[in-house]
Design brief:
D-amino Acid Aminotransferase, Chain A, domain 1; six-stranded antiparallel β-sheet; 11 helices; 13 strands
Length: 314
């Protein structure tokens, strides 16, 4: 065990305890957490900063509001139901089609209106929220996946996670939905994590769970060598996340829409560490490098130039 710990330390792998003590506790003021823990607040501050997000169709705040859901989605065959305080992808319901009063999930399963009502009722009661507290439910635009991902995604929309430290993107991965994850881009539910070269936006090898993989488990298509469109814009969105939240260490989740381009999906004050496995690289050295230059008033363009030069895969 000591030998494994030493090897991980030598490779610059950031552990959970060090992440919590040296980065989250020291660089993320507690008073700023609600801005990212509440997805509705996140959307509001992103819009105020001129950053693109999925369109909000409406918000359900009380059990009585469930009666408003059919009218709220009457003009939308596709939409997403999302708890404002959900975590780990729990409680997110993606609807991709409708036939009469029935709604189709991204997995192909058909739901009655009563199923949707029950799901919303559970979310409002706090079933999916942090701490089990009563919650609000957002109904929003369902992202239309950019065609570049069609061959390496299963019945869902991939997203790009970027970890940012004081305005400097330090590591990124592409998260691909699978059959096991029920079409959700959530690693804990079985999605695939694919490392991304920060310099070029090109994917490298990937991981599912703790197992390295080179092909998507459902489509059998290679996951390395994919060039992510709009990479400059994605890095710019990520680089601004610290500015709009007041958090020094943050995970930024971006989706790439077919017609609307990159959209901020969520921000996370406690981003996970599996991104290191996907990239086959440790975070600690990159964070220490940024710590040495942060606070010097570098412009966003200068910060992005710095990380492209220093953190390229090679």
């Amino acid at each position: 065990m000591l030998s494994l710990r030493r090897r991980l330390n030598e490779r610059g792998v950031l552990g959970l305890n060090r992440r919590n003590a040296e980065y989250i506790s020291l660089h993320n003021p507690r008073r700023r957490f609600p801005l990212v823990d509440d997805k509705l607040l996140t959307k509001e501050i992103a819009i105020a900063a001129g950053m693109a997000v999925p369109e909000l169709y409406g918000v359900l705040e009380r059990q009585h509001d469930i009666h408003d859901l059919p009218a709220m989605v009457a003009d939308h065959k596709q939409f997403v139901i999302k708890p404002a305080h959900g975590s780990g992808g729990n409680g997110i319901l993606v609807i991709t089609g409708r036939r009469g009063a029935r709604h189709q999930k991204s997995s192909g399963e058909w739901l009655e209106q009563s199923d949707l009502d029950h799901h919303v009722s559970s979310a409002l009661s706090g079933l999916y929220s942090l701490g089990g507290r009563p919650d609000r439910v957002m109904v929003e635009y369902c992202v239309d996946c950019d065609p570049v991902f069609e061959s390496v995604s299963y019945q869902g929309v991939p997203d790009i996670r970027v970890i940012v430290f004081h305005g400097y993107p330090v590591m990124s991965m592409l998260r691909l939905p699978t059959r096991a994850s029920d079409g959700k881009a959530n690693l804990h539910q079985g999605a695939v994590g694919v490392g991304v070269d920060l310099s070029t936006g090109t994917t490298v090898g990937g991981v599912q769970g703790n197992d390295p993989i080179q092909e998507h488990p459902d489509t059998d298509q290679p996951i390395a060598g994919l060039s992510i469109p709009c990479w400059d814009h994605i890095l710019e969105l990520a680089g601004r996340a610290c500015e709009i939240t007041g958090l020094g260490y943050v995970g930024v989740d971006v989706v790439l829409d077919r017609t609307r381009g990159p959209l901020i999906l969520e921000l996370n004050a406690r981003p996970g560490l599996n991104i290191q496995i996907a990239n086959r690289r440790g975070l600690r050295a990159r964070l220490e490098t940024v710590h040495g230059v942060a606070g010097r008033g570098a412009s966003l363009a200068d910060r992005l130039r710095f990380v492209r030069e220093r953190f390229a895969h090679g």
